[in-house]
Amino acid sequence: MAGNDWINSYLEAILDAGPVIDASKSSLLLRERGRFSPTRYFVEEVITGYDETDLYKTWVRAAAMRSPQERNTRLENMCWRIWNLARKKKQIEGEEALRMSKRRLERERGRRDATADMSEDLSEGEKGEIVSDLSTHGDSTRGRLPRISSVDAMEAWSNQLKDKKLYIVLISIHGLIRGENMELGRDSDTGGQVKYVVELARALGSMPGVYRVDLLTRQISAPDVDWSYGEPTDMLTLRNAENFMHEMGESSGAYIVRIPFGPKDKYIPKELLWPHIQEFVDGALVHIMQMSKVLGEQIGGGQPVWPVAIHGHYADAGDSAALLSGALNVPMLFTGHSLGRDKLEQLLKQGRQTREEINMIYKIMRRIEAEELALDASEIVITSTRQEIEQQWQLYDGFDAILERKLRARIKRGVSCYGRFMPRMVIIPPGMEFNHVVHDGDMDGEVEGSEDNSSSPDPPIWSEIMRFFTNPRKPMILALARPDPKKNITTLVKAFGECRPLRELANLTLIMGNREAIDEMSSTNAALLTSVLKLIDKYDLYGQVAYPKHHKQSDVPDIYRLAAKTKGVFINPAFIEPFGLTLIEAAAYGLPIVATKNGGPVDIHRVLDNGLLVDPHDQQAIADALYKLVSDKQLWARCRQNGLKNIHLFSWPEHCKTYLSRLATCRPRHPQWKRSEDGIEESESDSPGDSLRDIQDISLNLKLSLDGEKAEDSGTLDSILESEESAVNEKSRVERIVSKLSKSVIRATQKDASSENSSKLPILRRRKHIFVIAADSVSNADLVGIIKSIFEAAHKDRTSGSFGFILSTSLTISEIHSILISGGIPATDFDAFICNSGSDLYYPSPNSDEMLSSSELPFAIDEDYHSQIEYRWGGEGLRKTLVRWAASVVEKKGEGEEQIVIEDEQRSSTFCHAFKVKNPALVPPVKELRKMMRIQALRCHVLYSHDGTKLHVIPVLASRSQALRYLYVRWGAELSNMVVFVGESGDTDYEGLLRGLHKTIILKGAFNLAPSQLHAARSYPLQDVVEFDSPTVVQCEGCSTNGIQLALSQLGLLKE
């Protein structure tokens, strides 16, 4: 066969190159970072270029020609191994095709179910398959604001915002971030995103109406990075802010704020940051709280100035922003930059690695889950192009363009969406700073006349490029891209080399990064650069192609100027270009463009109209487009003029104006309490007046729970709760209870001050340390024993009031009450109870002996907490979907069926839909349930109990770890002063309790029950998100008092 001749040639080349490839060294990571290997290169050519049948026949031929010679033996072995690699690739591709087919069916089913619930007739706006009004610069002008095309327009717009003083928080936690002399390209984490977020912060800080912008990132004090990355803050120099100096204040402006988290003396890649996300969230929360109070003193009249939005950049920051948004109850924005599902799809299509191997290197499943959570929590998702929405975000469970359109139309009509929500996708292209742009000629492109009049010397990079050319005055075709196969540089060189008229008319300049020696480059980059050099030699392009080895970032503007000076063209021939920032940069310097028709360049061309789009696979089309632009002077001048005329649409002021306008459409949210903070101070001593003032505040804020939740059946608790009374009687009883509480505090003021703490609600802010008991993997009897051991271990500080206690569990408040009674533990020994997996928060009543009847539980529910977590709660619409799903989970028994999942109405509450699971082995894992909910646009947090017999569905941003953050925001309970006690395993939210600013004690021993197999089917391994080898995590053998005291001593909380 014809193909076999090529295969044989490749195999001969492999044999000549050296020993056969070692399978243990064939990972993608080594291919990207290792030295160039001809063996790997030719193996890839064989696997990707030829059919499995040809490879099999080659192996058969080699086996038939077996001889004692070593070369033939190696050839046979190599053929067999390469054939197996090709089979593996084909198998992976087949599995992925089946997975994608299943995904399409699931999405269609979910869309049908969601539409069935929304049973009203669809309006015209809910029909159709295309998302409308997505692009800021698209064809639709509906709702578009006028452009900022002059200083007068900017001043008019700024006058509308002069009374606003906004506080905006941006988050980008990986890479090396500083305001000046950015080390772009230093590593894969310090690239375009770093420049984007810094410039965005700087530009927003210069906008009218914006008082302060904080860019939160990681503080790094490692010996291998510059000292500046260890500075806590870095003030950014604002540009073009002279007209708004009157708005400047003591803390105004734009700042890089570095939060310490992760290894203190080590700079680590983003894939290894996941175990430290909780620590960053806690540290960022502390900073935002402090800054809100400072701004409140300066511009808020004494009231905290909360962020108007928290904007996460990339998956890790999106995960962090979602948790911060939930803790502070403020709107969230998200920009993905690069998406995990898209990267996973691309790597799987290559067929070189399995999903498991990819996840091992890139932690891709954790990244994807973070992006899904960002979709759950975001009000606006900012993208650069339409292609990003239609081809990349469409891969996610949490976004469906068709369903998004229907939900938006229903919202406009005021029709119920039945608890369904979809983030708004908005296209806002990245901005650029054009003030430094210098042109060598006028708008008509007459650049030659200015050459002799220029007194300034030519930039050094010009001579570095021009030395390659026989005739450096010819128009320059400029390509600026790293040597990556996706950038399609080889096709460009072929197009140039095979088009004689183009070669005679123009020169070609290839700026392909920086290099010392090809052998020291990564194998992929080295192979591509070698191919380029071979093509130059093949077409004899010496004197016509420049490929300099070095250039600085500051040289790039001069390179653009040189191309424009020669009346050249800029080209981006990438197979797919997510955005195309270089196209905007080139246009700013007056260069017409030729660009790929796949991705972001389509949107750029629609706005600028300054060049031609081509099929990157069509070599002839590329050559024709380049020749047309270079040879037609009128077309060249028109494209140049269009680009310069419209380039302001990609300026930072235009970007920020659109950004702030979109932000203004978000419903304002921030922490709001039903009580006043006046008179509440953090002090060590409590006066009797404080107690009275606190109980009066609590009477406004907290409604005493009459039965904790919905009526409980007698089989669940030791005591039988009375049935609910009417709403009028309930209100009357609450008023009488509050009255009694107030009277009791008045009586307490006449007693000795030492007993005052017992009547203080809440007293969390006065605790030096707070012990959070969250052991899920134990029986109720063992839980009582653990509580008593912890109480005994901290007896001295407990009696003095230094230590406080919180019980955090999936149990209801009624079940907790029953357990405490059975163990003889007073409820007032605890400061708070986090119940129903974090969906309810209670405080003990200080006067349980004066409750009006035995059915009234001695707890007060925090309604402010419910106002924090109700964001995107599906309520009854979500419950109906869950009930319908539960009815479909059945076990066949003979001729009949038994329902496995049953709604637990007694254990359900307003913000917790509870279900009983009869057989955990027959229900889907959490990741499948979350996927099902997301496909139907239902945003919620799904959890299984430790043993898998309980299923809780709570608000998406509610959890037990989030409840601890609420206690800090609400009452000032310092997170760093908390100690969380957990078992060896736990409920689905176990990982969130292990890390953060708090300390963790893991109780080990035989009392830990084995977890359900449901918890084994995780989206990602637990070790990907938790670092157990940490000084803040201590493992305690057993739950004895002495063991717990020893663990507390290791954490520095008790003296030996």
UniProtKB/TrEMBL annotation:
CDD domains: GT4_sucrose_synthase (cd03800), HAD_SPS (cd16419)
Extent of Basic and acidic residues compositional bias: 104-115
Sucrose synthase first GT-B domain ranges (all copies): 167-433
Reactions it catalyzes: beta-D-fructose 6-phosphate + UDP-alpha-D-glucose = sucrose 6(F)-phosphate + UDP + H(+)
Enzyme Commission number(s): 2.4.1.14
Pathway(s) it belongs to: Glycan biosynthesis; sucrose biosynthesis; sucrose from D-fructose 6-phosphate and UDP-alpha-D-glucose: step 1/2
Assembly: Homodimer or homotetramer.
Name of the protein in question: Sucrose-phosphate synthase
Gene this protein is translated from: LOC103706486
